[in-house]
Specification:
Layout lengths: L5 E3 L4 H7 L16 H6 L2 E9 L9 H18 L4 E3 L3 H7 L6 E8 L7 H9 L2 E5 L23 H13 L2 E3 L5 H10 L5 E2 L16 H9 L3 E4 L3 H5 L6 H15 L4 E3 L19 H12 L1 H19 L4
Parallel strand pairs: 1-2, 2-4, 3-4, 4-5, 5-6, 7-8, 8-9
Helix pairs in contact: 5-6, 11-12
This protein binds zinc ion.
Zinc ion binds next to loops.
């Protein structure tokens, strides 16, 4: 079997980098779910790192806080360019396959509060931003998030302009956390594959953060991707889960629309209760082994990272 290309579509480790003075990305930390030594141990080739701005900074401090996080992210990559590679184009991502000693990091934004105009989107594109989760749970100037249950709102006028501009620039449109109305508004106008970087199947676990069947079908229609979230709450609705729960969501989605549109979106360092046996990124090879056993080599490779590669090849710009 060929080497496994492992890609994880979402983590909130930048929160740890920003807030925990005892955390060091370059040391094997006892706390948290990932750092560079553990990414390497887990064989992770591509890790999407979200800039997640905490609610206390919204709305007025969202822009300066997002800029600070983007700066911290670049400082991280620059301080160890032997081992880290900033992924901003298809070519850079493809080159990762030939450089197993390097870990690719892709800069994402979780919650678009800092994107207040087309020009601010353009500025963040030049800072290397390549994936935007349009909202977190709240409403913002782009769209309503899933936690905004009173208004029934969808994508705003600005949100529509921003999605179209993201399509043109080569920034992925991430529909995780959107309200259902926002999701369908995005689906109507987005010309690139839809990305749900860290969401599961609602029929398996009826959490509002999970995707209904028609949403799953739509993402597959666009040749997009659903990254399976490792939060026990989203896997089975409790604080306790296992690798079997991850497999259940993968099996449900692949039974509906095949193995081409499902990947991983751990949400490590953003979740409190990961599954037993999947406590941190070093456990990815254990999951791979289980996927091979259940679905065969080819399908396991797709789920572990090839599907992320395929979708990013359609979304990212050429360098
Ligand atoms: Zn999230």
């Amino acid at each position: 079997m060929e080497a496994i290309f492992t890609a994880d579509g979402h983590c909130d480790t930048m929160l740890r980098v920003m807030n925990d003075p005892d955390y060091d990305f370059f040391s094997n930390n006892g706390n948290g779910h990932l750092d560079l030594p553990r990414l390497m141990e887990g064989g992770v080739n591509l890790q999407v790192m979200a800039l997640f701005v905490e609610s206390k900074f919204k709305p007025f401090q969202a822009l300066p806080r997002t800029l600070e996080m983007a700066g911290a992210f670049h400082r991280l990559v620059d301080s160890n360019s032997d081992k880290l590679e900033l992924i901003t184009s298809r070519e850079k991502m493809e080159a990762l396959k030939k450089k197993p000693q390097k870990t690719g990091l892709l800069m994402a934004l979780e919650g678009g509060e800092a994107i207040c105009s087309l020009d601010s989107l353009y500025a963040f594109f030049h800072l290397g931003l390549r994936l935007i989760t349009l909202t977190w749970n709240q409403r913002n100037q782009l769209a309503d998030g899933v936690g905004e249950t009173c208004t029934g709102g969808g994508l705003t006028v600005l949100g529509r302009e921003i999605v179209k501009a993201m399509n043109g620039l080569g920034i992925g449109v991430d529909v995780s956390h959107l309200s259902e109305k926002s999701f369908w508004d995005v689906a109507e106008i987005c010309e690139k594959p839809l990305i749900a970087s860290h969401s599961n199947a609602y029929e398996v676990c009826n959490h509002p953060r999970n995707l209904k069947d028609d949403q799953i079908d739509k993402i597959a229609d666009t040749e997009g991707i659903i990254g399976i979230n490792f939060s026990s709450y989203f896997l089975n609705g409790t604080k306790k889960s296992s690798i079997e729960d991850i497999i259940n969501h993968i099996e449900y989605i692949s039974n509906r629309c095949g193995f081409d549109w499902v990947g991983l979106g751990s949400d490590f360092d953003g979740i409190g209760f990961p599954p037993e046996g999947m406590e941190n990124v070093t456990r990815f090879p254990v999951l791979a082994k289980e996927l091979i056993k259940r679905f065969g080599d080819g399908n396991a490779l797709k789920i572990m990272g090839e599907n992320w590669r395929t979708v990013l090849n359609k979304v990212l710009p050429s360098s």
